[in-house]
Amino acid sequence: MKVILGMVMSVDGKTTRHNAPDIYHWSSKEDQKHFFSLVEKHDVIVMGRRTYEASRPVIRLTPGKLRLIMTRSPEEFKKEAVPGQLEFTAASPGEIISGLSQKGYSEILLAGGGEINTLFLKENLVNELYLTIEPKVFGLGNPLVAAEALDINLSLESVEKLNIEGTLLLKYSVAS
Ligand SMILES: NC(=O)c1ccc[n+]([C@@H]2O[C@H](COP(=O)([O-])OP(=O)(O)OC[C@H]3O[C@@H](n4cnc5c(N)ncnc54)[C@H](OP(=O)(O)O)[C@@H]3O)[C@@H](O)[C@H]2O)c1
Q1: Could you read off the pLDDT tens digit of each residue along the chain, which spans 176 residues?
Q2: Nearest atom within ligand 1 for CA of residue 143
Q3: In the 8-state DSSP scheme, what is residue 17?
Q4: Quick one: how far is CA 123 from the chain centroid?
Q5: What is the DSSP letter of 93?
Q6: Neighbour-count burial for 99-110, b at 16+ CB within 10 Å, e otherwise
Q7: Closest C-alpha to ligand 1, atom 37
Q8: What does residue 53 show for φ and ψ, rounded to 5 degrees?
Q9: Domains plus CATH for the chain?
Q10: Which of 104, 102, 74, 103 is nearest to 86 (CA)?
Q11: Eight-class DSSP state of 27
C-alpha cells in the first residue's frame, strides 16, 4: 500500500492560521487545485475527526470514493456514515492499511491533521509527502505533526513553484 500525505502549511510549518480551522481562507487557489486533483486521483482519503469536521462543508460524497475518518468514538457518527463513502473507524493505522489492502486498494491519500499524520509516521506507514508551502508566517496554528519525537529522513523528489507569489509544492519520498 502506498500512502501519500498531502498538506498545505505556512513557511513556519503551521497548517492552520492561528486557531481558525478553515484552511481555504489562506491557502492559494493553486494549492486548492492541486489538492482537489489529489482527491480526484485517490479512491480512499483518510483523515482525523477534527480535519473531517473542519472540511465537512467542502466534502462532496461520491460513490466509489471512500472517506475514512479516524475517531475513538465511531459510534457517535453512526447516523452520518454512508457505507463505502463516509466511514468512521477506531482502527489503528496498521489495521486500516491491511483492511484496505485486503479490499484491493493500493494507494491512499492521508489528509491530516497533525495528530493523525503522527500516528502514520510513527508506524512508518507513509511513503510520500506532498507539502505545499505558502509564503506566509502565522506564528500560531496547528502543526504538521504532533509534538512527539520522530526521526524520519526524507528525500526531495521535486520542487514546483505554483504561482507568482512563490507558493511551492515539495514532493518528498520517505527514506527507508
Ligand atoms: N493545512 C492542511 O493541509 C490541513 C490538513 C488537514 C487538517 N488541517 C487542520 O488541522 C486541524 C486538525 O488537526 P488535529 O491534529 O487537531 O486533528 P486530526 O488529526 O484531524 O484529528 C484528531 C482526532 O483523530 C482521532 N484520533 C486520534 N488518535 C486516534 C487513534 N489512535 N485512533 C482513532 N482515532 C484517533 C481523535 O478523534 P476523536 O476525538 O473523535 O476520538 C482526535 O481528536 C484542523 O483545524 C484542520 O483544518 C490542515
Answers
A1: 999 999 999 999 999 999 999 999 999 999 999 999 999 999 999 999 999 999 999 999 999 999 999 999 999 999 999 999 999 999 999 999 999 999 999 999 999 999 999 999 999 999 999 999 999 999 999 999 999 999 999 999 999 999 999 999 999 999 97
A2: 15
A3: B
A4: 16
A5: H
A6: ebeeeebeebbb
A7: 71
A8: -65, -35
A9: 2-174 (3.40.430.10)
A10: 74
A11: S
Cell numbers for 103:
479490499
28 close to ligand 1 (CB < 6 Angstrom): no
Please give the full DSSP string across 109-162, using - where no structure is assigned.
EE---HHHHHHHHHTT---EEEEEEES---SSS-BSS-SS-----EEEEEEEE-
Q: Is 62 helix (H, G, I), strand (E, B) or coil?
A: coil
CA of 69 to the centre of ligand 1 (A): 9
The Cα–Cα gap between 132 and 44 comes to: 21
pLDDT recorded at residue 176:
75
Closest CA to 72 of 98, 91, 59: 91
pLDDT of residue 153: 97
